[in-house]
Write a structure and sequence with these properties.
Layout lengths: L1 H28 L3 E3 L24 E5 L7 E4 L1 H6 L5 E3 L3 E5 L3 E6 L11 E6 L1
Parallel strand pairs: 1-2
Antiparallel strand pairs: 2-5, 3-4, 3-6, 6-7
């Protein structure tokens, strides 16, 4: 009896590991990487870039820009609306952000850049 129970537990553990492996491969296969601003990169006037795109949870958005000229700040809606740079800041010039569910707000924290349209709101479902 104990041998049958032990065999069932081993079978169950192997089955669960298989489901986890297949599930993570399906999730990874369905993600998309987007370059913010397409060929123009993360720059002034990019605020309409997300329009018409269907972002999903786990998608990656990449901010390409000359290091030291711009940055990327994740802000809340109020700071997005008011162009206030208060949040996590990226400065590498090739920043990658994986999207979570809901809307994420990004601005450039360099003075005048957000007001010049260097901000995007991205909603992932």
């Amino acid at each position: 009896m104990l041998g049958k129970l032990k065999g069932s537990v081993i079978f169950f553990v192997i089955l669960m590991m298989l489901f986890i492996t297949i599930g993570s491969q399906i999730t990874n296969a369905s993600t998309t990487t987007y370059n913010v601003g397409d060929n123009g990169g993360w720059t002034l006037g990019v605020s309409n870039w997300p329009n018409g795109k269907n972002f999903k949870i786990g998608d990656v958005i990449v901010f390409n820009y000359p290091k030291g000229v711009h940055n990327v700040v994740i802000v809340d809606k109020a700071n997005y609306d008011n162009c206030k740079s208060s949040g996590k800041t990226y400065k590498s010039g090739n920043d990658r952000v994986t999207l979570d569910r809901g809307t994420t707000y990004f601005i450039c924290g360099i003075a005048g850049h957000c007001d010049g349209g260097q901000k995007i709101a991205v909603t992932a479902n």
